[in-house]
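Work Package 4 report. The design task specified in the project plan requires that, given a folded chain encoded as structure tokens, an amino acid be chosen for each position. We show below one input record used in the internal validation round.
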């Protein structure tokens, strides 16, 4: 009896795991090891370093066929095909706006509709931003608990987990094949004769790194610490920089740079990319710590976003009654972040308050009472976004708005620095 022997690859090459376990482990370890002493000591302890290192490959452990739903949901988090994503123009910062933008693009470009599917284009910067924000949130809570002399052990565990989890995606972001439609074999016109093999991805990130690259090759290539400005913008720039290495990777592959123990150029290339991941992870963890000290805005003024729908604008936290007419909603984007009073923010002090004008109509009706307006007090003490919350009618609401717009305040402060805040005030109308 003769069985039919199917020749299957012994190791099924995972299509897009993003560095193998060794690369992810190295990146997380090198980043943890290089954290500066400006971050809390617990994060630099040997135990934290061990945990962060262990967590490097963690999201790949969630990609087992034993948990198919989890795998399906998270696979697109590991990559982004920038050549497709960039067709959208400026990427929206929020995951669901991005999904909507991709589908909208497909509707207006039917030939691209099959490619322009969110799970095919990928969510790399979105998961990174979201995990980074979890880290920042936990760090903010750590600061609060520390300041209150409460137990910080539970939140320290959360911070270590988020830092390690974040490391996986930041590391994926330094692997050129995780940023491109050319993620596993060249597609389309191929004048340079690059490999079309579906082994290139796995060979580069796992096989070659396992065989030829060690931490001692990577560590010297880490960059000096850099300050992250806006983390979303800086991370997208990092991904685009990674993407600029795609063709070089194919060229080195063609020159057998990643075969066996590779060539010096191949080894340097892989080590440099791993070092870029470790450097960025270190800087992103530091940025989360620095920014966790910032006060919490009540809302952000929406920046002008081409193509963003108007309805996604900043929540006007308290919407004004309709009878207040056209005098509302200044939505002055020069105000910057607007904060709530409390949590260390000292409220503004009113220093100049001209009386509102009464109206003849209200006088005839002998109408008196108080109305409440909400407003934003800017860092220079001026009043903006004045809106009536509790109206009186008879023209008094409009007059109150006019008066409050002329109010002047000693601005609110956080750690002694002026900040814009949203607040409310009463305006009284009386007949005496
Ligand atoms: Zn990955």
């Amino acid at each position: 009896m003769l069985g039919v022997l199917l020749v299957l690859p012994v190791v099924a090459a995972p299509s897009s795991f993003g560095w193998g376990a060794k690369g992810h482990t190295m990146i997380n370890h090198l980043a943890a090891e290089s954290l500066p002493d400006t971050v809390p000591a617990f994060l630099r302890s040997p135990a934290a370093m061990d945990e962060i290192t262990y967590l490097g490959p963690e999201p790949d452990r969630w990609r087992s066929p034993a948990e198919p739903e989890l795998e399906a949901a998270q696979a697109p988090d590991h990559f982004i095909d920038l050549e497709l994503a960039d067709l959208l123009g400026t990427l929206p910062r929020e995951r669901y706006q991005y999904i909507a933008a991709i589908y909208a693009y497909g509707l207006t470009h039917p030939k691209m509709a099959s490619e322009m599917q969110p799970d095919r284009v990928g969510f790399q910067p979105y998961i990174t931003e979201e995990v980074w924000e979890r880290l920042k949130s936990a760090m903010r809570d750590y600061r609060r608990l520390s300041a209150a002399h409460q137990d910080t052990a539970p939140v320290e565990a959360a911070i270590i987990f988020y830092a390690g989890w974040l490391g996986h995606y930041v590391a994926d972001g330094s692997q050129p094949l995780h940023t491109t439609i050319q993620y596993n074999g060249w597609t389309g016109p191929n004048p340079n004769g690059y490999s079309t093999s579906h082994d290139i991805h796995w060979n580069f990130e796992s096989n070659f790194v396992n065989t030829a690259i060690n931490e001692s090759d990577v560590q010297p290539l880490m960059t000096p610490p850099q300050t992250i400005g806006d983390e979303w913008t800086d991370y997208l720039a990092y991904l685009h920089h990674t993407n600029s290495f795609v063709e070089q990777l194919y060229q080195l592959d063609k020159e057998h740079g990643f075969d066996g123990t590779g060539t010096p150029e191949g080894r340097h290339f892989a080590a440099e990319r791993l070092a870029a991941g470790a450097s960025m992870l270190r800087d992103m963890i530091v940025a989360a710590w620095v920014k966790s000290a910032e006060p919490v805005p009540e809302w952000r003024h929406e920046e002008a976003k081409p193509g963003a729908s108007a309805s996604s604008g900043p929540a006007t936290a308290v919407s004004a009654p309709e009878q207040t007419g056209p005098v509302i909603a200044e939505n002055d984007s020069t105000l910057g972040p607007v904060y709530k009073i409390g949590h260390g923010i000292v409220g503004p002090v009113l220093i100049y308050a001209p009386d509102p004008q009464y109206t003849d109509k209200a006088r005839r009706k002998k109408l008196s009472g108080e109305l409440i307006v909400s407003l934003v007090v800017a860092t220079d003490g001026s009043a903006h976004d004045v809106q009536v919350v509790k109206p009186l009618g008879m023209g008094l609401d409009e007059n109150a708005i006019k008066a409050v717009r002329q109010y002047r305040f000693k601005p609110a402060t956080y750690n002694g620095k002026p900040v814009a805040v949203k607040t409310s005030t009463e305006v009284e109308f009386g007949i005496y």
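Residues 361 and 394 are 6 Å apart (CA to CA). Validation will be extended to a larger panel in the next phase.
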